[in-house]
Amino acid sequence: MTMNTAVSRRLLRREARATRRGPAITLALLLTAIALVLLAGVLASTLDAGFRAQAAEWLAPAAAIVQSPAALIAVGAVLLALAVVLVGLALVPGRRARRTRLDARAALVIDDGVLADALADGVARRIGVPRGQVSVTVARRSALIRVTPTSGVPVDAATAEEAALRVLDEAGFRLSPRVHVAREGVIA
Q: How far is CA 41 from CA 45, 68, 139, in A?
């Protein structure tokens, strides 16, 4: 593997994956808040007794709520749910709606919407229906092609699927096309 190939693969991976900026910022804010509360507790213990008594008066309602078992269970459940969400976001890979391909000459990143448009154009051209009557949704491993034929002009689903496979082969992406032809056509 050459250096250019390794760099290209790393760049393609970076472009195809979503960042974890949101969960990282949320976690940093939570940890900062916890650190500030601990710092306030340490500072409060070093301050004079009058300030500590006044702070205890201010925090008495919150301390009373925290003493009840139901409140502790609720806070624990919320913290557990937050921890599960943050761990899930850290472990599950983020995926953008993009496809990548590496050739000998170029590294290519294509948005799923662009691939869907190209697939719809190619299928419409090959089966002979107007482009507005073909819609495509690209999923992770498949492409759903919905064809609405012109009234009185039949469209064969096998021909449309073959056309979709041909377009995908030309583009160089491996997806399994599923074709759905509407029973009723539109008036041309």
A: 6, 22, 52
Helix, strand, coil percentages for the chain (3-state, nearest 5):
60, 15, 25
Going by DSSP bridges, is the β-strand pair 134-138/107-111 parallel, antiparallel, or unpaired? unpaired
Q: Which of 161, 178, 22, 11 is nearest to 98 (CA)?
A: 11
- The residues of the chain that CATH labels 3.30.70 are 98-181
Domain 98-181, CATH class in plain words: alpha beta
Distance linking the first and last C-alpha atoms of the chain: 54
The per-residue pLDDT string of the chain (188 residues; one tens digit each, 9 = 90 and over) reads 455 677 777 777 777 677 777 777 887 888 899 888 888 777 777 777 777 777 778 878 877 777 888 888 888 899 899 888 877 877 777 777 777 777 777 777 788 888 899 999 999 998 888 999 999 999 888 999 999 988 888 888 888 899 999 988 888 888 899 999 888 777 76
Contacts of 55 (CB under 8 A, 6+ apart): 44
